[in-house]
Amino acid sequence: MSDGKAISTHETRQRIVHAGTELFRRSGYTGTGMKQIAEAAEAPFGSIYHFFPGGKAQLGEEVIRTSGAAYLGLITTLMAPYEDRVAATADAFAAAADTLAELDFADPCPIATVAMEVAGTNDTLRRATSEVFDSWIDHLAAYYAQGGMREPAARETASSVIALLEGAFMLGRAARSAEPVRAAGTAAAAIVRMALAAE
Predict the structure, then answer these.
(1) pTM of the predicted model, to two decimals?
(2) What is the 3-state secondary structure (H, E, C) of 72-122?
(3) Which of 53, 92, 147, 182 could anchor a disulfide with 85, C-beta 3.0 to 4.6 Å?
């Protein structure tokens, strides 16, 4: 295979994953067909099964894990510069509220969208979403611990913060308002402040 062909093949696969990510985020896993993904990726329909012989479930798992890693990178980028863990948390929620509004209240998180749909019907995808959420909680707990919070409070706090964010996205979508995310940010910052003060 030539270098040009390898690049083209890699780009096609990336376009398929990106299209799946966007469509799952907007329309959900069950509401998205493989033909839609191929059209959005501008890829031949058969190429999806070439890259993902396990079909939609395999593509769904790839989308979950790829998106999960990307969002973890975003969380790191947003919060790493802050010494103040309370301010970092508050500002991360403020940024999330702005993103929700900019996306016209489509869910910015494909992980949560898929998780709610498949938790009781597809154990492979359920496990993938659970592992992604765990990776976020682990990372955030380590960040809080580096700021002086002890275990198990750091992990409990991180879990609460992630739950607040994902729940706020759902309420914000339903209300078509960023206010639930801003309110959750206030609550999350307060939880972090109390956990730090308890040390």
Answers:
(1) 0.87
(2) HHHHHHHHCCCCCHHHHHHHHHHHHHHHHHHCCCCCCCHHHHHHHHHCCCC
(3) 147
